[in-house]
Design a protein that fits this description.
This protein has 255 residues and is of the alpha+beta class. The protein has helices at residues 27-41, 45-56, 84-97, 102-113, 146-149, 159-167, 171-174, 226-229, 235-240, and strands spanning 9-10, 22-26, 60-63, 70-75, 78-82, 117-122, 127-133, 139-140, 155-157, 178-179, 189-191, 207-210, 215-218, 246-247.
């Protein structure tokens, strides 16, 4: 699950006695997050073999390692193999056109994002959806700076981020933020856009190297946008994006 898909970090109502942060996604947001995962990381054969039966039911036949290994899909009266590079797009298409029930969608999300999930209800939004557990409570940043030195895609900040910078009159930060169209997938505001060139920076402008300590520091750490605070969100995203941080094996419970 990528940072751009994270909507809100709140404590899951059933987990009030634990230091755990959950994100609520509507059905559509959950499917969008799965689509982004499939697109961002390329073919994931092992994952596709696990989720295909949940998405396609008896319309697929998963064949494990042999000369005919892979996912075979029913077309007419026969099963035909689908190449891994095409399978992700097909699975998303089916999810978008024939959405499974929330319990099954939660199971799919658990496999895709490699974290705990559950179908549930958000009382603040009065809508059913999927709760997804962040693994950030056990994450320790090594300050390697990789995530900030390789901004490989355009991302955005929230209105709350933008308003906070406005309230503090941080014109230096605001100069690097571009207001987007209402339907933009990056959110209401795109960061970090070079005010001189209009192009998105590939290295965060607020990153400061500390060569004598072999690490990097964020010069706006207390004010950094939520997308940065939430990175990498899950162990999977950390591994897939080359994060050097570490995760504890267990969630931290309060004293």
């Amino acid at each position: 699950m990528t940072g751009g898909q994270i909507q809100k970090n709140i404590q899951h109502p059933a987990m009030e006695n634990r230091v755990e942060s959950w994100t609520f996604l509507t059905r559509a947001q959950a499917i969008d997050a799965i689509a982004i995962d499939f697109q961002a990381y390329g073919p994931q054969p092992d994952l596709f073999r696990c989720v295909a039966p949940l998405i396609l039911g008896n319309r697929c036949n998963v064949r494990h390692p042999n000369k005919h290994a892979g996912v075979w899909i029913l077309q007419g009266n026969a099963f035909y193999p689908v190449a891994d590079q095409d399978l992700g797009f097909y699975l998303i298409h089916v999810l978008e056109t024939a959405t499974p029930d929330l319990e099954t969608l939660a199971e799919i999300c658990a496999l895709v994002f490699q974290t705990r999930t559950c179908a549930g209800y958000d009382k603040t939004k009065n809508i059913s959806g999927i709760w997804i557990l962040s693994q950030m409570d056990t994450f320790v940043c090594r300050q390697c700076g990789k995530c900030c030195r390789t901004l490989a895609y355009e991302t955005g900040c929230t209105r709350t981020d933008y308003s906070r910078w406005q309230d503090l009159d941080r014109q230096d930060i605001l100069a690097w933020v571009c207001k987007e169209t209402e339907n933009s997938k990056t959110g209401p505001y795109r960061i970090w856009v070079n005010p001189d060139t209009g192009k998105t920076a590939r290295t965060c402008p607020w990153l400061a190297p500390c060569p004598e300590e072999n690490r990097f520091l964020c010069t706006i750490h207390d004010l950094k946008p939520s997308v940065c605070r939430q990175y990498p969100y899950t162990k999977k995203h950390a591994v897939m994006t080359g994060c050097k941080g570490v995760f504890a094996t267990e969630s931290i419970a309060p004293e």
